[in-house]
Design brief:
The chain is α+β, with helices and mostly antiparallel strands. It has one domain: Aminopeptidase (3-Layer(aba) Sandwich). The protein is built from four helices and seven strands, in the order E-H-H-E-E-E-H-E-H-E-E. The protein binds coenzyme A (COA).
Length: 152
């Protein structure tokens, strides 16, 4: 059986409105990112990719910052109607490929079982808990890391 290829492309300024819309769907109560925040991420040169559905509408996105010897997953999301079909893993693997051998860090809500399962399956481990990290919900976050040199 041949593997299905999920085509990703670099995010651009024209995608920001779609990213904001998805953030508001995916992260209600946790200060979804604004257009200004995404514009800042792109202006900083961080690695952002999107996936488009058959109609060309963005249904998945992810962003990574390279910070010296480390990398940080800043965001990753898949439209609810597109979840469970491998897109989240494809997005994360794209970020990890971009990170290369660097240690990769991220934060995730402690009650976000699907995301935690995804991260653990890609080599991340829990480092600790950041209490009330998300606002205004007050939800706790795990800090997770994929160790340096773990790249395939
Ligand atoms: C987390 C998220 C990006 C995963 O995207 P996705 O396209 O649904 O994920 P995939 O189909 O690629 O699945 C990858 C893995 O995630 C885990 N996963 C996905 N959905 C899951 C669920 N409902 N329950 C448990 N694990 C799940 C599994 O480990 C799965 O691997 P498997 O299919 O081999 O079992 C997506 O659920 C999402 O956008 N959630 C809301 C936003 C969010 O929480 N982002 C992360 C913030 S830190």
């Amino acid at each position: 059986m041949s593997a299905v290829t999920i085509a990703l492309e670099p995010a651009a300024g024209r995608d920001i409105a779609a990213l904001v819309e998805l953030e508001e769907i995916l992260f209600p109560g946790d200060s979804p990112w604004t257009a200004a925040m995404f514009a800042g991420e792109l202006a900083a040169g961080y690695h952002y990719v999107v996936h488009r559905d058959v109609d060309g509408v963005v249904d998945g996105y992810a962003g990574l910052a390279l910070l010296g010897d480390e990398a940080e997953v800043h965001t990753i999301g898949v439209r609810p109607s597109a979840q469970g079909a491998g897109l989240g893993r494809a997005l994360l693997r794209d970020l990890l490929a971009h990170a290369g051998p660097r240690r990769v860090l991220l934060e995730v809500r402690t009650d976000n079982a699907p995301a935690i399962a995804l991260y653990e399956s890609e080599g991340f481990v829990i480092l600790g808990v950041r209490r009330r990290y998300y606002q205004p919900s007050g939800a706790d976050a795990y800090t997770m890391a994929r160790p340096a040199g773990a790249a395939a």
